[in-house]
Design a protein that fits this description.
With about 140 residues, the chain is of the alpha+beta class. The chain has one domain: Beta-Lactamase (2-Layer Sandwich). Helices cover about 40% and strands about 20% of the residues. The protein has four helices and four strands, in the order αββααββα. The protein has helices at about 10-25, 55-70, 70-75, 120-135, and strands spanning about 30-35, 40-45, 100-105, 110-120. The protein has a four-stranded antiparallel sheet. A hairpin with a 4-residue loop joins strand 1 and strand 2. Helix 1 (about 10-25) crosses helix 4. The mean pLDDT is about 95.
Length: about 140
């Protein structure tokens, strides 16, 4: 199997646009980050009125989703006391976010990047991230 083509700036912008559309539907201002297969930031947007403190969180959610190829909602659920990933948030020099809102982006069965969303409840962040992932090229 050949290497899947990674996330381009054009695709990242399309992913962010779909996420913003969902954020507007639920009336929550969000910070949205898209990273490539190396977890490098490709694109980022902060909606007017989105929390400044969530800029860093969105970018770290995208990094985390790519670093572990796992959505941050699942990672958070499995990092509670007594769970298999307990303490993971302390790894990677504090770059790990275990709140919902980070989702890997796959193409041809391979992870090619990730989205990170922050600004609302975990449920809101995750649903906005899902909308972004849905806009990615198959």
């Amino acid at each position: 199997m050949g290497k899947a083509i990674g996330i381009t700036l054009e695709e990242a912008r399309r992913i962010i646009a779909a996420a913003i559309e969902k954020a507007n539907q639920i009336k929550v201002m969000m910070n949205i980050a898209v990273v490539d297969e190396g977890a490098n930031l490709v694109a980022f947007e902060r909606m007017d009125g989105a929390w400044i403190g969530s800029i860093d969180i969105a970018q770290k959610k995208a990094f985390t989703a790519r670093a572990f190829d796992l959505d941050t909602k699942s990672l958070g659920e499995n990092s509670q006391s007594g769970q298999q990933f307990f303490g993971i948030h302390a790894s990677n020099n504090g770059k790990i976010m275990i709140f919902a809102g980070g989702i890997p982006i796959k193409r041809g069965g391979q992870v090619v990047g990730a989205i990170g969303v922050s600004g609302g409840s975990g449920k809101d962040d995750h649903s906005v991230a899902e909308a972004g992932v849905a806009a990615a090229k198959p």
